[in-house]
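Sync notes, pocket subgroup
Present: LS, DG
LS reminded everyone that the earlier model was apo-only. Rerun requested with magnesium ion included. Inputs:
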Amino acid sequence: MPRTIVHVDMDAFYAAIEQRDHPELRGKPVIVGGRPGSRGVVSSASYEARAFGVRSAMPSTEAQRLCPEAIFAPVDMPKYAEASRTLMKVLESFSPTIEPLSIDEAFLDASGTERLFGPPEELGRAIKCRVLETLQITASVGIAPNKFLAKLASDLRKPDGLVVVGEGEAPALLDDLPIRKLFGVGEATEERLQRLGIATIGQLARYPRDILIQHFGQAGEHLSDLANGIDERPVETEREARSLSTEVTFDEDIADYERLEAVLFDLSEQVAWRLRKQRLRARTFTLRVRFADFDTVSRSRSQKRASNHGPLIFRSLCEPLAGLRESRRAVRLLGVAATQLCGEGDEAQLSLFGDDELEKARAVDEVLDAISARFGRGTIGRGRTLRPDS
Ligand SMILES: [Mg+2]
């Protein structure tokens, strides 16, 4: 049975939201991100700004040089997160099997919904229409028999695009594309493939599979499959996800480890909150640190019992953070990831707490969650939160 996989990707999400909320910005080059002159980068650029060569993650100063008339707007994360929640709700009305990839992007498995929504083209139009009606901003949609092709398709006619790739159309679509367009092919793999004389996806598709496996091991098999338009990966809902993480990139590198500890506390609370929202716990928590020179280290700590309690996550990651303090190196990114997830009912949460203490901790979590749910996250904390970008 061929699947119907949909990839929805909002167009210039943050910039589009700012243009929606500030009509005077419509039709103008808008850049959401750090101010030029600061160490900030471009988080999102409107299509008018992209015409000047402005791209995401580019230093704001360079963006301003490319497009002097650009209007800069600060990042308003709570507003975009709210729009993201609305977006995901709209998408859930088309299929319960939805895998959010980022704040403005998701996969849907819409197999078997034809009777409800019609053939793929109609489904795609309906999704775009409902998103536009609800959020007043546009989405690009790709529909294909698998994730790889759907994601590729959504990118082909941006902005406001809709591309449907049928079962037999993959070879024609892929043939001339550079190998860089393949999922998982970064600079290093690209170089190694080029040394074998492979520059396009078509060339990779026709390359002998066994030789690819000799060179790349199991990854060779995967590359060959993708190049031939084969991708069996299922759409995984957040509950089935194997990890959950959150991170923050600082406007200015931070060498003050007490401040970093405060940020770590906040990130731990965020991860705990997201776990509890999904009724999940995790056994392993990982601290990710990227230094000013882009060198990145990860330190993991596993617990005997799975947890979704913020202070516990914080305590387990404090020691690895303290270990990095000696180096006095300035940090540009801090992240916390939770892995080895399990459902809340699957395992009792005891760990460092006695039963009584655990009950108390849980009661506090429940109150905090109830308040956050009513007034939005960040309204209340345990008296030790610091917004990294405030
Ligand atoms: Mg997008």
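DG: The longest helix spans residues 257-277.
LS: The first strand starts at residue 5 and ends at 10.
Action: DG to write up.
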